Amino acid sequence: MTWLFDAYLDGRTYTTLAYMLAALPLGILGFTVVVTGLALGAGLLVTVVGIPVLVATLLFTRASARLQRRLAWSLLDAPMPRLNRERDDEPGVFWRRLASLIRRPGAGRELWFSLLALPLGVIGFSVAMSILWLMVAGFVQPVVVALGGESGVAGWTIDTVAESLVFLPVSAVFLLVGPRMLLGWGTAFGRAVTGLLGRIAPVELKRGVVDVLTGAGDADGFEVLDGLRLRFGRGPFVTPIEVEAALLALESSGAIRSIRRGGRVSYRLA
User: Fold this and answer.
1) How many CB atoms are located within 10 Å of the residue 240 CB?
2) Which pLDDT tens digit goes with each residue over 175-187?
3) C-alpha to C-alpha distance for 196 and 194, rounded to whole angstroms
4) 83: which DSSP letter?
5) Looking at the DSSP assignment, which residues form a beta bridge with residue 257?
6) How would you classify the pairing of strands 151-153 and 156-158?
7) To 5 degrees, how large is the angle CA 36–CA 65–CA 116?
8) Which of 132, 227, 236, 258 sits a CA distance of 20 to 30 A from 4?
9) What is each CA distance from 47 to 12, 42, 111, 115, 239, in whole angstroms?
10) For residue 124, what are the contacts with CB-CB under 8 A and spacing of at least 6?
11) Would you say 171 and 135 are in contact if contact means Cβ atoms under 8 Å apart?
């Protein structure tokens, strides 16, 4: 029972609620801007106007994804990698900038998240409001009816105090489990955001491996993994399989070389 009441003292309960309530307007804004921008830009692509429209849309998508990462990290406590702020490779020339934005690692996932933000926001907002309503409805309805008002649920008009007490046990139960349900939904939303926006591009991972080996001189796979986790942060975005793939790719390209010492394999810059 204490586990249930602890949720009221957990700050994540209230930050999760804030995130789920904010998810709907942010989802509407992101979906509207991206769909409108892509449709308008593609339609005007035969003219000069379409290119800057697409550039502006992709820049908005990138900024929106950066905001979503920040909100998920600060409000949902979702793990997010520490990445350097992105810079435009081809600033000033629209068609080059458009190509740079399209080729940018993670651009596709950010675009998909902008489109999925609306249904996710609708679900999050609906769940949050439903939980809040079920927590308080059973206590509010008797007061409303006692003051001479009426309330209704699914076409049923409640106009007597006895009828209004029907939902009192439901609200009593949701006062106990409601905050825990919010935390559970927040965890699910956090995993969704991390899965789409919390990945590290292979090129960034390879750059991180090179930086780790530059500082360490030589290191085995476990030491490289620890170094990458110190660089990017702990989370599901740096796994042993991804590190091994990065090491193999760098070794195949000749950027690093492996050294076998007994049963230990170390890596160093070539």
Assistant:
1) 11
2) 888 899 999 999 9
3) 6
4) -
5) 268
6) antiparallel
7) 60
8) 236
9) 49, 10, 24, 26, 45
10) 19, 20, 23, 24, 185, 189
11) yes
In the chain, the domains with their CATH numbers are: 2-114 (no CATH), 202-269 (1.10.10.10)
CA dist., res. 135 & res. 138, Å (int): 7
> pTM of the prediction?
0.78
Handedness of CA 112, 113, 117, 119 (dihedral sign): positive
Residue of higher predicted confidence among 94 and 75: 75
pLDDT of residue 35 exceeding 90, the answer is: yes
Q: Is 220 strand, coil or helix?
A: strand
> For residues 72 and 227, what is the distance between their CA atoms, to the nearest angstrom?
24
**Structure-token match 């076409």, residue found:** 155
Let me know: does 53 contact 40? Beta carbons within 8 Å: yes
Q: How many CB atoms lie within 10 A of CB 166?
A: 14
pLDDT of 101 > 80? The answer is no
Q: Give the model's pLDDT for residue 237.
A: 84
Cβ contacts of 155 within 8 Å, gap of 6 or more:
none
pLDDT tens digits, one per residue of 155-208: 556 666 666 676 788 888 888 888 999 999 999 989 889 988 888 888 889 999
